[in-house]
Amino acid sequence: MRLSAPFIRWASKSEKLLPRLEWPKPPPVGSWEEVLAKNHYLAAYTNRPYYPLQYAYEALPERGGSAAEARDRFLLAARLHEASHDLTLNGSRALPDYFFRNWGVAYSQLLATERSDEGVAALKQRAMNAFLKYLAFSTLTEEDRVTVERSLVSLIPPPQQLKQHLAQQEAARQQQQQQGQQQQGQQGQQGQRRLEQQQGQTKPPKPKSDRKKRKSVKAPGA
Predict the structure, then answer these.
(1) 0.85 cut: is pTM over it?
(2) Tag placement on the chain: N or C end, fewer CB within 10 Å?
């Protein structure tokens, strides 16, 4: 899945505004570094992906927007969550629990816009990974935990459905293999016909007979 040009430009510009300070890891308690890390540094990296996620809901068709616009915003939010997670945040602060929930929500919202089986499987896997990280926190309420667990279970295909999906993939693979073999066979037949046509146009000379003409011998008394 690819982002459209305006969202790529926004991601590039917003990245340049992120703080890139250096201090001890973790910063000393009560120091100015800790204040910056807690109140500014971490907020900048978590708010950047949260902003397009909030505006993605406003772009949904049921709210007067377009599916394409909502898709781009959800995709941008998911990509920015990944980018923030890949950074160590300078070792100053751990990402909060809601960061991983929003990450999973962004990818799960993209499922309605993906048509290919491979794309759906990839989106589900990424959403599941984010939700699993979220459920690892001990700071969640019981109600919220149950809600996310249900969302996580909905992303896992039932065993029978998984078997059918695998069977369909195997059938499609065999069909492609058979089509490839048929194409090779047809190409071979066409080559053989061309060869026969060329041989028919240039007929080889008839070989001379080695047999000598026999003189006719009359029978006695004839």
Answers:
(1) no
(2) C
